[in-house]
Amino acid sequence: MCKRNVYVFLKNKIISLDIIIPFCLEVNKQCNIKFIFVVRDLDTYKSIVNNNIVLRDAMNSIGKIIHLSKNRYKLQLISKIFTLLYMFYVVFRISIKKDYLIHFGLFNVKPFSLFCSLLDKKHVILSSTSSYGIDDNVKHNFLCAGMLIGYSDSWLCLKHDSAVNLPKIILKKSRNLPSWINFIKERSDMYINLELEKKMLSSNRIIVFPIGKLNLDIKMRHCGSFIKTLNILAQYSKKYPIFIKPAIYTNLDYVKKLINDAEDDIKINYVFTKASVFVNKATIINEMHNLQVPVIQCLYDFEGDKDFFDFVSPKADYVIGNSSISLNEVLDKLTKKKNLPVNYEITQTNIDCDLFCK
Q1: Which secondary-structure segment (H or E) carries 23?
Q2: pLDDT digit string, tens, across residues 311-333
């Protein structure tokens, strides 16, 4: 076992951190590797540190996060100089200290591909951008990589000419790695109770309501479904608080206005999971489905539209809006159950720590 650092250059979207963090936790556990997460966008950095306590705590448990944004200092010139110096510092660490670097395609293109020429590629790892086998499949003319981490066999980079002889790690169920499952199991009640205490609420069961960027909904179908679903959930919220989970960069003022308009007639106990309600297809549906948490997808304002089934997730247990079953019927059925099944399926994976000790 060797003590090395791994510099993870995240994309300017939280999804890259969400994808790689289970793998990082497992490598840290098995190989004693420390991770430095690097973000190049200040808003993304603030969103992780201030608004996503789960990912923030996961990172802090195995390393730290820094940002190299142009707004790091008041003078952008100073920020750019700092970024350049830090990049050469990373090159030094990889070349001399034999540290490692993980990226999601950043070093495949200019200007960062120029730094790739200074790196020992055996210490550079290219990661896929999807943990559920639906990869972006962007074609790259050049791969800055000495190892690949993928989540499905269909990832185009696995078939790249320069990747034929590279070591490859395929994690088809990365969310089931022991370190990630244990992290969630140990802390989930604490996170939920903290949110309930802020609102002076208490309950042994909640309803999670993930939503997308409703302010970008031109046809207003998602907004309409959101309001209709919220009106029904209000009837249950006194006993089962509603945890509304907005997508990253959602305009919260717009969402709060929708809620306030709905509250003219009803009272809703909400915060922002064992039943889950969705108005769109989302990665989180896969998360809940894997845990065997009942998934309800509400598409009220899509009913009768020719593209209705384009929005239906195959992972949804119930789809409301194009069937005879009502949301009240589903919620009444689920809330009568004493315990909803939550299946923490763990996939044991032995990480070859020698891959990080070259």
Answers
A1: helix 14-31
A2: 888 888 898 886 668 899 999 99
